[in-house]
Amino acid sequence: MSRIEGVPSRRLARLIYAGARREIKRMTGRSLLTPDIPVRAHRIGLLLGYAAMEKSVARGARVPERLRSLAVLKSAVMQGCEMCQDIGSFEARANGVEERQLLDLHRYRDSDAFDETERLVLDLAVAMTVTPVAVTDELFEALRERFDERQLVELVNLIAVENLRSRFNAAFGLGAAGFSEGMACARMEGNVAAGAPPLAVAS
Predict the structure, then answer these.
(1) Please, which contacts does 108-112 make with residues 24 or more away whose CB atoms are closer than 8 Å?
(2) Three-state SS sequence of 46-94
(3) Left if phi > 0, otherwise alpha if psi is -120 to 50, otherwise beta: which for 96?
(4) What burial letters (b/e) apply to 93-110, b meaning 16+ CB within 10 Å?
(5) Residue range 67-104, pLDDT digits in tens
(6) Are residues 32 and 79 in the same domain?
(7) pLDDT confidence of residue 203
(8) How many Cβ atoms sit within 10 Å of the Cβ of residue 197?
(9) Same domain, 16 and 105
(10) For residue 42, with 0-12 CB atoms within 10 Å meaning exposed, 13-18 middle and 19 or more buried, which class applies?
(11) Does residue 114 fall inside a structural domain?
């Protein structure tokens, strides 16, 4: 349950919201059945700006979609965003992430379900999502051996945007939207300060 109501159903608000929905769909081509959109619609200008950003993130990907999905999902579950856990697990399956990888995402370093490139991408997602950010020179050099500069910018931007999404949704208490109902999801984890002992997570 969201901590605030979405845009109310008064006629003017409906017209503004409907206009925003049409414009965002034109810009992104995506369905708007996600719980954050009515909340974001309280500030139409911010909503349209957010849609433009999401469009730029989605277009012209140079990093394989499977890797993009793993990075996004890892960041989401570290931040406790139920909506992003739900949608991220759904999109990960659609982009070729195996069910075993979803189930082992919390222990990706010890699981043989991931190859070394996948582990490095997940290391980046973790290092960017902990507080403070903990991206080391060693990690960045290892990534440079596998990705060119355009791909690195894409990956870092993608994870940064997921941090924005997850923190917005978690702050408003936005829950799952049923995208992964009855299917395997990556489990929630704890986001901890860099260098601190990991938080306990539910089995």
Answers:
(1) 108/74
(2) HHHHHHHHHHHHHCCCCCCHHHHHHHHHHHHHHCCCHHHHHHHHHHHHH
(3) left
(4) beeebeeebbebbbebee
(5) 999 999 999 999 988 888 988 898 899 899 999 999 99
(6) no
(7) 29
(8) 7
(9) no
(10) middle
(11) yes
Number of folded domains in the chain?
2
- Residue 2, domain member (yes or no): no
Element (H, E) at 162: helix 149-171
Residue range of the domain that includes 107 = 65-171
For 117-172, the pLDDT digits (tens) are 999 999 999 999 999 999 999 999 999 999 999 999 999 999 999 999 999 999 99
Query: Residues 13-18: contacts with CB within 8 Å, 24+ apart?
Result: 16/41, 16/44, 17/41, 17/44
pLDDT band at 3 (very low <50, low <70, confident <90, very high): confident
CATH of residue 132's domain is 1.20.1290.10
**In terms of C-beta density within 10 A (0-12 exposed, 13-18 middle, 19 or more buried), how is residue 80 classed?**
middle
CB 146 within 8 A of CB 117: yes
Pick from 41, 2, 46: which is nearest to 18 by CA? 41
Average pLDDT, the chain: 84
Residue 80 structure tokens: 């406790």
* Single-letter amino acid, residue 39: V
